[in-house]
């Protein structure tokens, strides 16, 4: 039996002291979590008493809480860990009133599911859909409270279908989620030589192109509807390998034969959160717009000049063919700041006077990692 030479204390005795402290802390945490849940319930009761519109999820309030916690955090837990833990706490508290229904591009086990859970926690009611179109329709029809849709990937660029649907929807962007994309080779094969096919979504195959060239150059690469579908098939056939994320690996109980095989080490996908209500000012916000201008020399520079004059920073500019005319384009623009706060408010008033078309897609908190 080992012991501390200076104190004569055994390892079991030393551990018992620390474990007793942990038990006491766990009890306090349990009490505080239930007190927080009771406060969340009281918030719902107050809203109902004063005739609130029933909008129980406030993305701007959540962002403010998470930022404050990160400022208070002194470790050893990382800020990202604190954010994830408290999102789950908030998710569970909201579910006491009513679980939030979240539509996303399915099936279960995709990166879209990971984004939905990252934003809304595991207490949310997850509603996987067959297409991005169906994700939009589910919220527009009131069958889901929010949509989570991919809008751009750092390697592959913009998600065209999402941009097209933003043109016509009445939904508002009320949040954003940034997910680090780690691709893994999942299979029941014991080594690379046993693999006869590699399955994945076409975009994931493209993101791992060089790794596949080096390690599986002669194995056919077959695109399928989703990474989760690839994982499902790999779980049934050991000659198949799937390229997919951790969520698919867990759902289908597939071992990693290789991890983090994406060619770009900073491969990241940005998702938008869409709802029927606008988000309020959080203090660190973005606003997304759609603009169009007549096709003439210098038109875009002239159109965007109110932003520069107001000192509003533009973080993204994406062109997309317009639906109404050949060789005409609309521009998707992200700017810093909230549409209801200066200087963005004044700049948007000037933009509206200059633009042939202007649609404010929404203002929302900048993603909290």
TrEMBL record:
<keyword id="KW-0057">Aromatic amino acid biosynthesis</keyword>
<dbReference type="InterPro" id="IPR010957">
    <property type="entry name" value="G/b/e-P-prot_chorismate_mutase"/>
</dbReference>
<dbReference type="GO" id="GO:0004664">
    <property type="term" value="F:prephenate dehydratase activity"/>
</dbReference>
<dbReference type="InterPro" id="IPR008242">
    <property type="entry name" value="Chor_mutase/pphenate_deHydtase"/>
</dbReference>
<protein>
    <recommendedName>
        <fullName>Bifunctional chorismate mutase/prephenate dehydratase</fullName>
        <ecNumber>4.2.1.51</ecNumber>
        <ecNumber>5.4.99.5</ecNumber>
    </recommendedName>
</protein>
<dbReference type="InterPro" id="IPR045865">
    <property type="entry name" value="ACT-like_dom_sf"/>
</dbReference>
<comment type="pathway">
    <text>Amino-acid biosynthesis; L-phenylalanine biosynthesis; phenylpyruvate from prephenate: step 1/1.</text>
</comment>
<dbReference type="InterPro" id="IPR036263">
    <property type="entry name" value="Chorismate_II_sf"/>
</dbReference>
<feature type="domain" description="Prephenate dehydratase">
    <location>
        <begin position="101"/>
        <end position="276"/>
    </location>
</feature>
<feature type="site" description="Essential for prephenate dehydratase activity">
    <location>
        <position position="269"/>
    </location>
</feature>
<dbReference type="Pfam" id="PF00800">
    <property type="entry name" value="PDT"/>
</dbReference>
<dbReference type="InterPro" id="IPR001086">
    <property type="entry name" value="Preph_deHydtase"/>
</dbReference>
<keyword id="KW-0963">Cytoplasm</keyword>
<keyword id="KW-0413">Isomerase</keyword>
<dbReference type="GO" id="GO:0005737">
    <property type="term" value="C:cytoplasm"/>
</dbReference>
<comment type="function">
    <text>Catalyzes the Claisen rearrangement of chorismate to prephenate and the decarboxylation/dehydration of prephenate to phenylpyruvate.</text>
</comment>
<dbReference type="InterPro" id="IPR036979">
    <property type="entry name" value="CM_dom_sf"/>
</dbReference>
<keyword id="KW-0456">Lyase</keyword>
<dbReference type="GO" id="GO:0046417">
    <property type="term" value="P:chorismate metabolic process"/>
</dbReference>
<feature type="domain" description="Chorismate mutase">
    <location>
        <begin position="9"/>
        <end position="101"/>
    </location>
</feature>
<dbReference type="InterPro" id="IPR018528">
    <property type="entry name" value="Preph_deHydtase_CS"/>
</dbReference>
<dbReference type="GO" id="GO:0009094">
    <property type="term" value="P:L-phenylalanine biosynthetic process"/>
</dbReference>
<keyword id="KW-0511">Multifunctional enzyme</keyword>
<keyword id="KW-0028">Amino-acid biosynthesis</keyword>
<dbReference type="Pfam" id="PF01817">
    <property type="entry name" value="CM_2"/>
</dbReference>
<feature type="domain" description="ACT">
    <location>
        <begin position="288"/>
        <end position="365"/>
    </location>
</feature>
<dbReference type="InterPro" id="IPR002701">
    <property type="entry name" value="CM_II_prokaryot"/>
</dbReference>
<dbReference type="GO" id="GO:0004106">
    <property type="term" value="F:chorismate mutase activity"/>
</dbReference>
<comment type="pathway">
    <text>Metabolic intermediate biosynthesis; prephenate biosynthesis; prephenate from chorismate: step 1/1.</text>
</comment>
<dbReference type="Pfam" id="PF01842">
    <property type="entry name" value="ACT"/>
</dbReference>
<dbReference type="InterPro" id="IPR002912">
    <property type="entry name" value="ACT_dom"/>
</dbReference>
<keyword id="KW-0584">Phenylalanine biosynthesis</keyword>
């Amino acid at each position: 039996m080992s012991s501390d030479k200076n104190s004569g204390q055994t390892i079991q005795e030393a551990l018992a002291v620390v474990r007793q402290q942990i038990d006491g802390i766990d009890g306090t945490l349990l009490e505080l979590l239930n007190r927080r849940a009771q406060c969340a319930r009281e918030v719902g009761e107050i809203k109902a008493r004063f005739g609130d519109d029933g909008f129980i999820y406030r993305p701007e309030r959540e962002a403010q809480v998470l930022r404050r916690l990160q400022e208070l955090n002194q470790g050893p837990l990382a800020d990202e860990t604190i954010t994830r833990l408290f999102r789950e706490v908030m998710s569970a508290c909201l579910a006491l009133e009513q679980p939030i229904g979240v539509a996303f591009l399915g099936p279960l086990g995709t990166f879209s599911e990971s984004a939905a859970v990252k934003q809304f926690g595991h207490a949310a009611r997850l509603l996987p859909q067959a297409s991005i179109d169906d994700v939009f329709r589910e919220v527009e029809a009131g069958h889901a409270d929010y949509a989570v849709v991919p809008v751009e990937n750092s390697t592959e660029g913009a998600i065209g279908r999402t941009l097209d649907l933003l043109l016509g929807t009445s939904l508002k962007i009320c949040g954003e989620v940034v997910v680090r994309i780690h691709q893994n080779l999942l299979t029941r094969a014991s080594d690379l030589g046993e693999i006869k096919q590699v399955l994945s979504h076409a975009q994931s195959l493209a993101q791992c192109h060089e790794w596949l060239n080096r390690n599986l150059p002669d194995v056919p690469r077959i695109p399928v509807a989703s990474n989760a579908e690839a994982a499902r098939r790999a779980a049934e056939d050991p000659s198949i390998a799937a390229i997919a994320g951790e969520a698919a690996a867990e759902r289908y109980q597939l071992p990693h034969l290789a991890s983090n095989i994406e060619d770009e080490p900073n491969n990241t996908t940005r998702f938008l959160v869409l709802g029927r209500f606008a988000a309020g000012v959080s203090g660190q916000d973005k606003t997304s717009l759609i603009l169009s201008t007549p096709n003439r020399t210098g038109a875009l520079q002239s159109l965007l000049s109110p932003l520069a004059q107001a000192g509003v920073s533009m973080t993204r500019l994406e062109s997309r063919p317009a639906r109404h005319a050949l060789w005409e384009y609309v521009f998707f623009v992200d700017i810093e700041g909230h549409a209801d706060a200066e200087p963005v408010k004044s700049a948007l008033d000037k933009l509206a006077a200059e633009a042939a078309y202007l649609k404010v897609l929404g203002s929302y908190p900048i993603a909290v990692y």
